[in-house]
Amino acid sequence: MPERGPEFIEAISRGFSVVKSFTAEYPQLTLSQVAQRTDLARPTARRILMTLQELGYVRADGGLFELTPKVLELGMSYVSSLGLWDVARPHLRDLVAATGESSSMSQLDGPDIVYVSRVAVPKLIGLRVDIGTKFPAPPTSQGKVLLAEMDRRDILERLSKPSASPVIPVVQWDQKSFLEELDRVRAQGWALADEELARGIRSIAVPVRDTSGTVRAAMNTTVHAAETPVDVLVREHLPKLQEAAAAVCADWARWESLPAEHNEPETPTHRRPPLLS
């Protein structure tokens, strides 16, 4: 475990470890299971659960504990601070209506992409995707688009860190060939991922830029590989995706050009998005 700084608050760290102990596979846990999964003493785990319950983030049902929807506020504070979702939402919906396929937007978080917005269609895809979902960046189209904007040293430094995603990609990235692919992505302005993250998942992505040309996010269209060949994805869906991303950029530019009192209201929803981290 890395050495903690003098300002580190252990109680907060333990509280987050309890929240993160609940997963899609284990949505309900006993006190003993929480203690075991967090490596905390039972009395400590119990006090944290009781605190989270009082704050409304956890509910108890008999001897089982589970998270409440209020936990979403923790992630949505970040998402709403981007401001980009409000601008992009109608264009994502229009894109999905035009293609009949799911569309998402992501940013980089270390060696992973994290989903910050999504409009989905009810199709059987091998991986569940929600706001806040993380996947390793290299085998994803959005990850390739975002990484392609970085210099090689930064790319390799970022990808040297362990992924926070539980997903093991079908295709493991090779440094030489991957960097060459990123060069092509940068030149052509879009990226393809063909069943690299998981079998049956094929996607194409483009960058979303601000008025300075800085890439703030990536936007994609995802299809089922058995239904949509690569040539259809590139020939038919890519132009619509590029058009939607361009519309997002144009609306964003108009929003950024407004006087501060118009684009910086009291609500946090319209704050300017941060740079890629």
- The top-level CATH class of the largest domain is Alpha Beta
Topology, number of strands: 9
Strand arrangement, major sheet: 6-5-4-9-8-7
How many structural domains does the protein architecture include? 2
Secondary-structure-derived class: alpha+beta
Termini distance? Answer: 23 Å
The CATH topology of the largest domain is what? Beta-Lactamase
The profile of the biggest β sheet is: 6 strands, antiparallel
Compressed to H and E, one letter per element, the order equals HEHHEEHHEEEHHHEEEHH
What is the overall shape?
Answer: globular
The assigned CATH architecture of the largest domain is 2-Layer Sandwich
Mean pLDDT: 86
The CATH homology group name of the largest domain? GAF domain
Strand proportion, as a percent range, falls in 15-25%
Helix fraction bin: 40-55%
Radius of gyration using CA atoms only: 20 Å
Residue windows where pLDDT falls under 50 for at least 5 positions: 261-277
Count of alpha and pi helical runs: 10
Structure description:
It is a single chain. By secondary structure, this protein is an alpha+beta fold. The chain has two domains: 10-67, Orthogonal Bundle (Arc Repressor Mutant, subunit A), CATH 1.10.10; 74-270, GAF domain (Beta-Lactamase), CATH 3.30.450. The chain is 44% helix and 19% strand. The chain is built from ten helices and nine strands. It has helices at residues 10-20, 31-38, 42-55, 72-82, 84-99, 141-147, 152-159, 175-188, 230-257, 260-263; strands at 28-29, 58-61, 64-67, 102-109, 112-119, 134-136, 191-194, 201-209, 215-224. The chain has a six-stranded antiparallel β-sheet, sandwiched between helices. Strand 2 (58-61) and strand 3 (64-67) form a beta hairpin. It is globular. It starts with 9 loop residues before the first helix and ends in a 14-residue tail after the last helix. Mean pLDDT is 86; it is low at 261-277.
